[in-house]
Design a protein that fits this description.
By secondary structure, this protein is of the alpha/beta class. Helix content is 42%, strand content 14%. The N and C termini lie far apart (51 Å).
């Protein structure tokens, strides 16, 4: 059957999951001349271009025949990831690591392996909605537990778990970002981490720990990850090279018990990530080059963050209450004087600056007075000018009573 235009009618051909899938919203590209404080993009001035070119040259010179042909993920990269995790206190090995196309693929695979329609997943409020979309597509029931200035509160989580248990709908999975949380920047203290693990073991709850920013601290290293503290095998840990090398390489990974990794492999139907790019990444990261690069990133992001802090205090004053993160890419704030994030966004776009309203990070519609500002992408002068424009927009909205 065709439509009036002569095109094949697809309505009856889509699978049920495709008919019911939600269109994932995204923020449009900023207009020319607009300063975007919206995206958690990496600092382009810190891309290790020369090092990646050299690594590519070496790989092709040494073994182009295998690097450019069909093949699995390069085992050397798996070993490198396992070694880096061991250095951070995580009991890792090649059997516990799966390399993926970015950390988002790892999240999607976990949703396929563990979630049936109706299963309860606990998420933080706010949180990274890229992960939430994977849970939704798996048919999960989402339960939001709001975080505070120290991240997820185990006492609130315990009450939620017990209520779900009494209702006969126990939670199966908890998704958490304990270290330099996206979007809030919070850092969960050690005592909360220990309590969280104890609760998970007691309630047979799987924890998905997303640690995209853990190595990008400004001064002191963060506490050990949940995975490093885990003795009951309740944690699946996911990481990425997007923030510490370059987003364009699209290399992430999952670390878990071997039997979980084996299940994930079953659903990674395209197979490995290929021998070429995984060899190049391993070659670049070897011999301490990645660690040296990360040290430089910490300095750059720390400086950009402090430039934003100073500008916010100067331009917005008490119109925005925010906490200063100790790492990561973002500043999270709550607007005062009845200013709504959407009204501020419209006003700021007219002045040539954009950001993400906080409601975009809640699965249940909260956050109408919150915003996320990214300092990672822009150069320091653009951060200063962007916050100046944002302050102008906030004063306009406040004066208009919006």
């Amino acid at each position: 059957m065709t439509t009036s235009t002569g095109m094949l009618n697809l309505d009856g051909l889509y699978a049920a999951r495709a008919r019911e899938a939600r269109v994932v919203g995204h923020w449009p590209d900023a207009a020319e001349g607009t300063i975007s404080l919206a995206y958690g993009f990496a600092a382009p001035e810190k891309f290790p271009t020369d090092g990646l070119i050299a690594a590519t040259t070496e790989v092709l010179a040494e073994d182009a025949a295998r690097a450019l042909n069909y093949g699995p993920t390069y085992p050397g990269l798996i070993q490198l990831i396992a070694g880096r995790l061991q250095a951070r206190g995580i009991e890792s090995s090649a059997e516990r690591v799966l390399v993926t196309h970015g950390s988002s693929q790892a999240i999607g695979l976990l949703a396929q392996v563990f979630l049936d329609p109706g299963d309860v997943v606990i998420i933080e409020g706010p949180t990274f909605l890229g992960a939430v979309n994977s849970f939704r597509e798996a048919g999960a029931r989402l339960v939001t537990v709001n975080i505070d200035e120290h991240g997820l509160d185990p006492a609130v989580l315990e009450a939620t778990l017990e209520a779900l248990q009494r209702a006969g709908t126990p939670a199966k999975l908890l998704y958490t970002i304990p270290t330099f949380h996206n979007p809030s920047g919070t850092l969960m203290p050690p005592e909360r981490r220990a309590r969280l693990l104890a609760l998970a073991a007691a309630h047979n709850l799987l924890i998905l720990e997303d640690d995209a920013y853990g190595e990008l601290y400004f001064d002191a290293p963060p506490p050990p990850s949940l995975a490093a503290l885990d003795r009951a095998g309740v944690v699946v840990y996911i990481g990425t090279f997007s923030k510490i090398l370059a987003p364009g390489v699209r290399i992430g990974f999952a670390h878990a018990r071997p039997e979980i990794i084996q299940r994930l492999v079953m659903f990674k139907i395209e197979g490995g990530n290929g021998p070429y790019l995984t060899r190049v990444v391993e070659r670049y990261c070897a011999d301490g080059r990645l660690d040296e690069h990360i040290t430089g990133l910490r300095q750059v992001y720390r400086q950009k963050a402090h430039v934003m802090f100073d500008a916010l205090e100067r331009e917005l004053g008490d119109m925005l209450q925010y906490r200063k993160p100790d790492g990561g890419f973002f500043v999270w704030g709550r607007l005062g004087y009845g200013i709504s994030a959407q009204a501020l966004l419209h006003a700021s776009q007219r002045l040539g600056v954009t950001f993400v309203p906080g409601s975009g990070f809640y699965a249940d519609g909260q956050g109408g007075d919150t915003i996320r500002l990214a300092f990672s992408l822009q150069a320091e002068p653009a951060i200063v000018e962007g916050i100046r424009r944002l302050g102008m927009a906030a004063r306009q909205v406040r004066a208009a009573g919006a």
